[in-house]
């Protein structure tokens, strides 16, 4: 059996930065060459970044991607890596299919290419286009209709792109029909809780269907609301795991695979009308090499650590990729802003995190003290600016009462945060959680101001769990737990009027989150939620609040998605909407 040394580069790329992405590909190809690799792969659309959204509709960007691909092929050869075949995802256009929006050139395609000896020797487009959740690929792309197979050192390697593995039919059975000895799938699969288990089962199943070792190469990093968690997987033809890369870590998995020698060159049309496109790069057996490398098996993170890591990676990517270094947070002494501050310190370093306590006449002593204690524990930059003089000035002019008076306090804090952001250049983090966003429990242009919402997809009940996990993790490492115990144990309160607590307006969080999980995440109707054991009255109230807060959510900043249904592209509801659920 020939052996093939495969290098899977689980790396980050930045949407639109063709130059920097090409540099990263060269860097990691050099690394793979130094490791003696015979075949090198990079993730889906690594050259352009993923997802490019409506940039795909701009012919200038499509051309730039095609041009960057050709330049990359030449550069790899110039730098001495021409003999090494490199699989690179990029944005292409079809020479034949008409664009959907009348652009002058052919329709855009989510494509990948094999670069060898300075040339683009093979290109192919994704066959199955995802069009659900956060994906809109039918909006942009036309599907590919070939089955790419490259012969590398006497092994036939079939190629696929992400969704090609998620749907039945297409390139997986075609890999078997083509008699390939290895299937390499390049991916950009956004993080969701528990998706690692789903992916593992998927890859095992598809390897058995394809009848060959299957390498699933994942992307790492973050793009706007999405986090890419890595977790590349290689399984053999029987579905046994051969290697698994770490989650949330950039790097290269290099492994030696025993693979069957290729037979006669595959040709013809196979499953789903896919025409085999077979390119022989090298029929020579693999040159002798010495060191035995193993891909290894990185242990999975536990559930809370995994979510927390996703929140850290998502925030870090957003801040860095948008050209910022520092963030600003209003610190109330409560658990939400404390958790956001802990995440920010882990993502950016405490020296880049700025917190302001902005007490009003309703702020309790403990809320001021807890905010200061958080700053002491984490080392973030801290100051206190009371809002009372500004509040008094507004009240003197307007004579506000009730909710208007309450919301004014929140808005003064929002204005203050934006003013300091303008003055000092930090971006403002919005500390709203998924429970609050669901029911509209925040003040528009008040505590909802900001550039990014790190915990907007985390329910309040999970906020407590994550805070406790982060403190426990610190203790286990012999460090100071970042979040003051009091911020975790005191009853949540907006402190906008005397003795206010969240439960004055909302059901207890376990009940609220239970209902939201059914209504928001699973689109259950009122009857089904009541049948699940929740009271008719509370269900009616929560559903009314959720429906009535759509306008507020639309104006909320973007933030890291961790669930299968975040408040972003996953859940698109009309703002103007008279449909109401009744139990
Ligand atoms: N469909 C629609 N499309 C566009 N705008 C719409 C609208 N419906 C109302 N509006 C407008 O929205 C505004 C009302 O919204 P808004 O000003 O936010 O005020 P509102 O939602 O009435 O009140 C804020 C609520 O959030 C609570 N809160 C505030 C701050 C922090 C926290 C916390 O614990 O985290 C909780 C507070 O106790 C109160 O219950 C009005 O200007 C109204 O005209
Ligand atoms: N006294 C304050 N000083 C600074 N920021 C504040 C203050 N009060 C509220 N904020 C900001 O407004 C956000 C909403 O806070 P609020 O206390 O109303 O409710 P919360 O959702 O329970 O949040 P938290 O758990 O952080 O207190 C806070 O996370 C914080 O960023
Ligand atoms: N880029 C893709 O095709 C991703 C789609 C796939 N179902 C996933 O979530 O992993």
TrEMBL record:
Per UniProt, L-glutamine binds at: 132, 189, 195
Q: Which CDD domains match?
A: GAT_Gln-NAD-synth, NAD_synthase
Does the keyword Metal-binding feature in the UniProt annotation?
no
Keyword line = ATP-binding, Ligase, NAD, Nucleotide-binding
Lineage, top-rank taxon, reads Bacteria
Q: What does this protein do?
A: Catalyzes the ATP-dependent amidation of deamido-NAD to form NAD. Uses L-glutamine as a nitrogen source.
Listed name of the protein: Glutamine-dependent NAD(+) synthetase
Q: Which organism is it from?
A: Streptomyces luteolus
Encoded by which gene? nadE
């Amino acid at each position: 059996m020939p052996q093939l040394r495969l290098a899977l580069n689980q790396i980050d790329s930045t949407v639109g930065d063709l130059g920097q992405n090409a540099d990263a590909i060269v860097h990691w190809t050099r690394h793979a060459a130094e490791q003696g690799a015979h075949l090198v792969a990079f993730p889906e659309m690594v050259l352009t970044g993923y997802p490019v959204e409506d940039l795909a509709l701009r012919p200038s960007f499509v051309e730039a991607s095609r041009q960057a691909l050709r330049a990359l092929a030449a550069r790899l050869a110039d730098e001495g890596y021409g003999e090494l075949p490199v699989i690179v995802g990029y944005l292409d256009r079809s020479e034949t299919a008409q664009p959907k929006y009348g652009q002058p050139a052919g329709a855009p395609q989510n494509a990948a290419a094999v670069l060898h000896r300075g040339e683009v020797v093979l290109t192919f487009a994704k066959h199955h286009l995802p069009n659900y959740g956060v994906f809109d690929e039918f909006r942009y792309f036309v599907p590919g209709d070939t089955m790419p197979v490259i012969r590398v050192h006497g092994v036939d390697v079939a190629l696929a792109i992400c969704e090609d593995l998620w749907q039945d039919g297409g390139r997986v059975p075609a890999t078997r029909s083509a008699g390939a000895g290895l299937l390499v799938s390049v991916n950009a699969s956004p993080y969701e809780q528990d998706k690692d288990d789903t992916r593992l089962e998927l890859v095992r199943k598809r390897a058995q269907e394809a009848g060959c070792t299957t390498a699933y190469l994942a992307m790492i990093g973050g793009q706007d609301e999405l986090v890419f968690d890595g977790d590349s997987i290689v399984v053999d033809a029987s579905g046994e795991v051969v290697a698994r890369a770490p989650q949330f870590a950039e790097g290269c998995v290099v492994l030696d695979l025993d693979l069957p020698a290729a037979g006669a060159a595959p040709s013809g049309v196979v499953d789903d009308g896919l025409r085999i496109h077979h390119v022989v790069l090298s029929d020579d057996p693999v040159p002798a090499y010495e060191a035995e490398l193993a891909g290894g098996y990185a242990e999975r993170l536990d559930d809370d650590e995994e979510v927390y890591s996703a929140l850290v990676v998502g925030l870090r990517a957003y801040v860095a990729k948008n050209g910022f270094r520092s963030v600003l947070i209003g610190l109330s002494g409560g658990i939400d802003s404390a958790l956001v501050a802990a995440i920010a310190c882990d993502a950016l370093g405490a020296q880049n995190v700025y917190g302001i306590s902005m007490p009003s006449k309703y702020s309790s002593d403990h809320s001021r003290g807890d905010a200061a204690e958080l700053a002491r524990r984490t080392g973030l930059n801290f100051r206190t600016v009371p809002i009372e003089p500004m509040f008094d000035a507004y009240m003197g002019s307007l004579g506000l009462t009730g909710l208007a008076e309450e919301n004014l306090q929140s808005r003064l804090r929002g204005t203050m945060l934006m003013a300091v952001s303008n003055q000092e250049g930090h971006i403002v983090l919005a500390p709203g959680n998924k429970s609050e966003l669901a029911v509209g429990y925040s003040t528009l242009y008040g505590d909802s101001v900001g550039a990014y919402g790190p915990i907007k997809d985390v329910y309040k009940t999970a906020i407590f769990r994550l805070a406790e996990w982060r403190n426990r993790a610190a203790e286990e490492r012999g460090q100071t737990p970042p979040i003051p115990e009091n911020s975790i144990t005191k009853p949540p309160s907006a402190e906008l009027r005397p003795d206010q607590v969240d439960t004055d307006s909302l059901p207890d969080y376990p009940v609220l989150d239970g209902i939201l999980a059914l209504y928001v995440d699973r689109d259950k109707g009122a009857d089904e939620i009541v049948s699940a054991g929740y009271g008719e009255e509370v269900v009616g109230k929560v559903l009314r609040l959720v429906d009535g807060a759509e306008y507020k959510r639309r104006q909320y900043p973007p933030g890291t998605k961790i669930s299968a249904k975040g408040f972003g592209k996953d859940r698109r509801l009309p703002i103007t909407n008279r449909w109401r659920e009744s139990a």
